[in-house]
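Run NXPE family member 4 isoform X1 through structure prediction, thanks.
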Amino acid sequence: MEKSKSQRYKSDVLRMISGEPHYVRKPEENNESEAFSLITKHYKHRMKFFSKLLLAAAMIILIKFLVFREDKIQVPKATYPFQMCSDQSQKEAHSSKTAPVPDALNRRIDEIYNQIDKSIPKIKLENFDEATSAGESKATIVNQKDGYCLGEQLFVRVQAYDYLGNMKSYGGDYLRARIFSPKTNSSASGNITDYNNGTYLIAFTLFWEGEVTATVLLMHPSEAVSALWRARNQGFANILYTGNFTSATKYVNRECGFQLETQEDICQYADRRDQEAFYCIKPPDFPCEALTHMNSVNRDHSYLSEVEKLLLNRSNIGVEISKDFKTISVSSCGKTLIPPTKSCNRGFYYPIPSGYFSHNIWNPVHCKMNLFNENEKLKRFLKGKKVFLIGDSTVRQYIRHFAESMKFLDYFNHTEDEMQSWQKTLLAINLENFIFVQWKKHTFPFVSKTFYSIKEDAYMARQIDQIGGGINTIIILTMGQHFRPFNFRIFIKAAFNVRRAIERLFIRSPHTKVIIKEENARDMDIDMERFSDFHGHIQYHVLREIFHGLNVGFVDALDMTIAYACNVIHPPVEVLENIISMSFTQATD
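Sure, done. The structure for NXPE family member 4 isoform X1 is below.
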């Protein structure tokens, strides 16, 4: 049946639009409007189709471009001091105990650890009487004479014996030596050489005139040193951390720590850049982010044998070694000690004895210390400056001394409850002189029986990263006391991370002053397995090795507190003022 003219025309138009070979009959007059409408409709449909196709192609090209660029460009990403893992990664983290450490850092940590480990005697004590005895050991003057001259050296030889009177054939005893004259409040420590055969030589420099007493204390016999080192690195069971998880209606406590022996899900709080991590058992119905507070207690646990525990009884710690001499007499012999004229500066540290006390004033041997013990002098020096104190309560003493004793700073909006929570960040200011001083604790490991907030916490390296720095910025750091109960590798890694943070700081702000207050001696009657000064002694030497070559100042608080014999964790004001003075002397341009 023959198609109508209208049908034939529609067919021709469709072939034209589709691109088929065709020819178009001239439309008759009454079909022109219909044809035009049909063409317009199909072209619109066609344009919509091509528009969608082009848009899809553009999106594909854009995605490929971004993927390519991601391979070529490091896109800045938000980082946080603590990053939570998924449940799966939590289980993986638990099985591996700690986050992986980059090979180079891992090797360096092992090098330092092994270096210290080789220097520690490996002794398995079964008979208490075979340990070094202060009463049986003998201290004698090598260069004995009737009188000594100012500036001379006094040499004392120590021969170690056990409780049975047998001469020791190996070294490793932890000794502490000092000279002092109570009349002038003068004192200094001695330099000890261990010959690793039971014999020790101590060199004292005679810095002042008068009657001088020399003492050598047996802090720990080598058998206790061996036990302390082994116990420290054997595990994490001595300290129990408890984390407080909080919601709007309830809270729950769960065990936390550097290592957890559990099959439960755990939360990993990790700094992935610096490879430092801490863990908590995850409570049901609480996200990992709900952790708000932390505390720690000494667990009823020990890695020591019963015989080794006896060595750490207070009666066996810091006992004076018997000697065959009393006081010695020092005169000027026509000599005068010429004090150094060059001010103490950053980038240097010196072996013990690095100085001496005279009339309760610290006198560095190699440089001149400016005394900052008066309000006006401190205010003039600190005018227009920011001081960031980072670490434990021994550096917190600075801000408390300024605000509570010298009273030239005012605490900023701290309530009574906040002051009672000693771990809380402290801020003190002097508006008239534009002085800003802040103390903030370092985070894990941090030991405290009372619960403290961790929401403001950050590792020391991260805190340094957050400081802009500048010519009027002073950063004073201390790390050590809270690290003593834990595996030594944790301290080494933290110290390396702090060093790298300081290097980054000096790139962006080379004029910032960084001072390291080294850890001081502490009490002899507080849990020696966890907090013995032997642990601090090792950390003291390692910290110097790690920070060697950096333009930072060192405040030898260990030397000062040994010389002064202030065996308390928070040195008295006479020593504190000298520690502060050494800090600010090195922070002077």
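The chain has a mean pLDDT of 87.
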